[in-house]
Design a protein that fits this description.
The protein is α+β, with helices and mostly antiparallel strands. It contains seven helices and twelve strands.
C-alpha cells in the first residue's frame, strides 16, 4: 500500500469508528427517551381506556369526566378475570376487549401476566397475537366490577402499539447511516485529493532520487526551503548531495593524483635503477677491457644510488607526513633554522648573496627536524632553480599571531600557469626556471606546514611597474597560545610576500 492510501484508509477508519460510537450513543439515548415517552403516554391512557371500555359494555366504573383524555390511536383495552371465570356484564354477556379504533390486531398476553396480590400497575413489552406484526407496550393493573357484595376481581389490560417509536428509530438509523456514508465519501475523496497534492513534492523527490541513484549527483530536489517539513527535507537532501558531490570530486581528484604520483614515482625510481643496471652490466661484460674506467663506473653507480636514496627518503617523509603520529612539540627558534639554511646555501654556492632578516628570536612549539627540513628545502629550491649569482633573501618574524618564514629570490619567477602546481608532488619548474630535482621538495614543505596547522604559499614578486622580480615562498605557522605580536613592533623590518 502506498503512503497516500494508508493515510486515507487510516483517516476513514478513524472517522468511521467515531461515527459508529456517535451513532450508537445517539440511537441509545433517543430510543430510551422515546420509550420513556411511550410509557408515560400509556400510563396517561389507562383511565381513558378503562372509561371507554366500561362505557362500551354498559358497566359502571371509573368516572369518565372531562379530565380523561381520549386514548391514543390503536389503543387496546380488555378485562381478564383473576378467578378464571368469564367476566360478564349485568345482562350476562361476556365483556369483549375493545380497541380504539376497532382493530383485529391485539397484543399477545402471557398466561400469567400479573401477581394476584400485586396492586400496582405493571409495564412490559410483547408481540402481536395470532401471528400479527408489530410490538406492543402493555400496562396491567387490577380492577373491580359488579356490586360491592358481588364484585369480581379482574385485570385491566391497556396496550399501545410501538409502531410509531420503531418507525422513528428506523428513520434515525436511516438518516445516520446516509449521513455517515456521505460524510465518509466526502472525507475519503477530499483527503485523497489533499494528500495527493501534499505528497506530490515527496513523489518528485523520489523521482529525483532515482536520477541521482543513476549517477547524476548534480541534480537537486525541489522544494528545498525551511517553510515546511517537506521543504526542510529537500534542503537537507540538497545539502547532503552537495557534500556527496564534493566528496566524490575530491575522491576522483585524489585517485587521479595517486595514479599520477605512482606513475611519477615509478619513473623517478626507474631512471637511477636503469643507470645502475647499465653500469653494472658494463662492468660485468668488460671488467678486463683496457678502455673501461672502473673508478668512473663505480662513481656513477654511487651517484645514482645516492639520488635514488634521496628520492626514497623524500617519499618516506611524505608518507609519514600524510599519516602524522602524535609527537611532543618542543620550542623551536625559526630564526636559528633560517640562519643555518643560509649558511648551508652559502657553503654550496659561495658566489651567491644570501641575506637573512630576523630582528628577534621567532620561537614556536613544533617538530624541530621537520621545520629545519622545510626551511632548507625552500632555500635549496631557490638555489637550484635560479641562475648563478641570483640574490636570495630569507626572513623570519612574527606577524599578527603567526610566525612567518619568507624565502625570496630575484630570478625570473614562476609562470602564472604554474603557480597553482608549485606544491604538487613531482611537479617540475617550468622552462623559465633552471635546475633539476625530483619535484618533492615543495610538497614536503607544504605537508610540514599543514602538520603544524599552518599553510605554505607561492607567489611572484613584482615591482612598481608590474614586472616580475622573482619568486616568493612563504610559510605561515600559527602561534597557538602565544600572545599576538604586531608587525609595528619590528621597526625597520621589511614585509614578507610580493613587493
Amino acid at each position: 500500500m502506498t503512503l497516500r492510501l494508508r493515510l486515507v484508509a487510516g483517516l476513514v477508519i478513524l472517522v468511521l469508528t467515531g461515527l459508529a460510537i456517535f451513532g450508537v450513543s445517539t440511537y441509545t439515548l433517543y430510543a430510551r427517551s422515546q420509550y420513556s415517552r411511550l410509557d408515560e403516554q400509556l400510563r396517561n391512557s389507562v383511565p381513558s381506556a378503562a372509561c371507554q371500555l366500561f362505557t362500551a359494555n354498559n358497566f359502571g366504573g371509573p368516572d369518565c369526566g372531562r379530565g380523561n383524555l381520549p386514548a391514543p390511536y390503536g389503543t387496546y383495552a380488555a378485562l381478564i378475570s383473576l378467578d378464571g371465570a368469564a367476566v360478564t356484564d349485568v345482562d350476562g354477556d361476556v365483556i369483549k376487549p375493545v380497541s380504539f379504533p376497532a382493530s383485529t390486531n391485539a397484543p399477545q398476553l402471557p398466561s400469567v401476566i400479573a401477581d394476584p396480590g400485586e396492586r400496582r400497575s405493571r409495564l412490559f413489552s410483547t408481540g402481536s397475537a395470532g401471528g400479527g406484526s408489530g410490538e406492543w407496550r402493555v400496562s396491567v393493573s387490577q380492577a373491580f366490577i359488579g356490586s360491592s357484595t358481588s364484585a369480581v376481581r379482574t385485570l385491566l389490560v391497556v396496550a399501545i402499539p410501538t409502531t410509531e417509536v420503531t418507525d422513528s428509530l428506523r428513520r434515525l438509523i436511516l438518516i445516520e447511516g446516509s449521513a455517515a456514508g456521505g460524510l465518509l465519501i466526502i472525507l475519503a475523496t477530499g483527503s485523497w485529493l489533499i494528500l495527493r497534492r501534499g505528497l506530490r513534492p515527496l513523489e518528485q523527490m523520489a523521482t529525483s532520487t532515482r536520477s541521482i541513484t543513476a549517477g547524476d549527483l548534480s541534480h537537486r530536489v525541489e522544494p528545498s526551503d525551511g517553510r515546511s517539513e517537506v521543504g526542510q527535507l529537500g534542503l537537507a537532501m540538497n545539502t547532503m548531495l552537495s557534500e556527496l558531490e564534493v566528496a566524490f570530486q575530491e575522491r576522483d581528484a585524489t585517485e587521479l593524483r595517486l595514479r599520477r604520483f605512482l606513475a611519477d614515482a615509478s619513473h623517478e625510481l626507474r631512471t637511477p635503477l636503469t643507470s645502475i643496471q647499465g653500469f653494472a652490466e658494463l662492468f660485468r661484460l668488460g671488467a678486463d677491457h683496457p678502455d673501461l674506467d672502473l673508478p668512473i663506473v663505480m662513481r656513477r653507480i654511487e651517484q645514482e644510488s645516492a639520488r635514488m636514496k634521496v628520492l626514497v627518503d623524500d617519499l618516506l617523509m611524505l608518507a609519514r607526513l600524510d599519516q602524522p603520529r602524535p609527537t611532543e612539540p618542543a620550542p623551536v627558534d625559526l630564526a636559528v633554522l633560517c640562519a643555518d639554511a643560509c649558511s648551508d646555501a652559502h657553503a654550496i654556492a659561495p658566489a651567491r648573496q644570501v641575506s637573512l632578516v630576523a630582528p628577534e628570536p621567532v620561537v614556536i612549539n613544533g617538530d624541530g627536524n621537520h621545520l629545519r627540513q622545510a626551511v632548507a628545502n625552500l632555500v635549496m629550491n631557490a638555489v637550484r632553480h635560479t641562475p648563478d649569482g641570483t640574490t636570495i633573501e630569507v626572513s623570519a618574524r612574527f606577524i599578527d599571531r603567526q610566525a612567518v618564514i619568507t624565502v625570496r629570490d630575484h630570478g625570473q619567477g614562476l609562470d602564472p600557469s604554474a603557480l597553482g602546481h608549485a606544491f604538487d608532488r613531482f611537479w617540475q619548474a617550468d622552462s623559465a626556471r633552471v635546475g633539476t630535482g625530483s619535484g618533492l621538495g615543495l610538497a614536503i614543505v607544504e605537508s610540514i606546514a599543514h602538520e603544524h596547522g599552518g599553510t605554505a604559499t607561492a607567489a611572484n614578486a613584482v615591482d612598481a611597474a608590474g614586472t616580475v622580480t622573482g619568486a616568493v615562498f612563504t610559510i605561515y605557522l600559527p602561534l597557538g597560545d602565544r600572545p599576538p605580536r604586531i608587525q609595528s613592533e619590528l621597526p625597520g623590518s621589511p614585509a614578507p610576500g610580493p613587493s
